[in-house]
Amino acid sequence: MEALIGGRNHSWRNAALAAALLSGVALTACQSGPTGELTSVETAQGSSENISSLSAVISRNPQDPEGYNVRGSAYGRGGKYREALKDFDKAIELKPNFYQAYANRALIQRFLGDQGKALADYNQAIQLNANYDAAYIGRGNLYRKAGRTQDAFNDFQKAIQLDTTDARAYHNRGLIYQSQGQHAFAIEDFSTAISLSPDAAEPYNGRGLSYLATNDEDNAFADFNMAIKLDGNIAESWANQALIYERRGDKARAAKSYARAAQLDPNYKPATEGLARTRGS
């Protein structure tokens, strides 16, 4: 789900959502958003060369909070969470009303497992700037993962009311609609997410599942195929494609797609169970 402020967004994927039960098979969608969290980093932005360049800028301007915020973002993308945390701490020390740094630090706190501190930082970012859409989206994801669905929905709704152009708000609200069986609303939100982030695979998976839940198999299949075309390393996409093949009676192709999903994620049950059903057919 999320991106650190100061760089491009990137794709994510997380645990599966039970979207529908069709023909006795559970459908699953990625539980985050097309712009993701730090599971897929842009190596150039988190590279040692980039860090060195940013450190040189900071050494020339050690009292500039922006420099620490940018370097902290680069550290975060490179998986160096402790270093990122120190830089965001310094940015906030130099600029106590630096709401972007609070939101960035909140995301790092989440990855370090301190959800309480993450929530406090998101709250502080919103207190400093009540119109900061990224903080609502980040806090919404925090709420969603804690099972606070209504609070999450309210935050995504608020970001959308602020005219956000961040696809995560629509994608994640779509996931909530989908989990509640409101597939028409879900399809609309996933479609908006796609228009805002056309290169992200996850909203295609989400929309495909809602199409399938409404028995629109052709559009579902098209969306799953597009998800694979955009990112062939997401197990859910292959398992969803396999499910269509299985429903159509093409067990050989289904087994091949399930096998690819299981290869990408050996612990992904829809893939391993689907492979067991179709292997050798």
Automatic annotation (TrEMBL):
GO cellular component, one term: cell outer membrane
One GO-annotated biological process of the protein: receptor-mediated virion attachment to host cell
UniProt xrefs under Gene3D superfamilies: Tetratricopeptide repeat domain
PANTHER family, per database record: TETRATRICOPEPTIDE REPEAT PROTEIN 6 (PTHR44858), UDP-N-ACETYLGLUCOSAMINE--PEPTIDE N-ACETYLGLUCOSAMINYLTRANSFERASE SPINDLY-RELATED (PTHR44858:SF1)
First and last residues of every TPR repeat: 65-98, 133-166, 167-200, 201-234, 235-268
Keywords: Repeat, TPR repeat
SMART domains assigned to the protein according to its UniProt record, in alphabetical order: TPR
Protein name, per record: Tetratricopeptide repeat protein
Domain of life: Bacteria
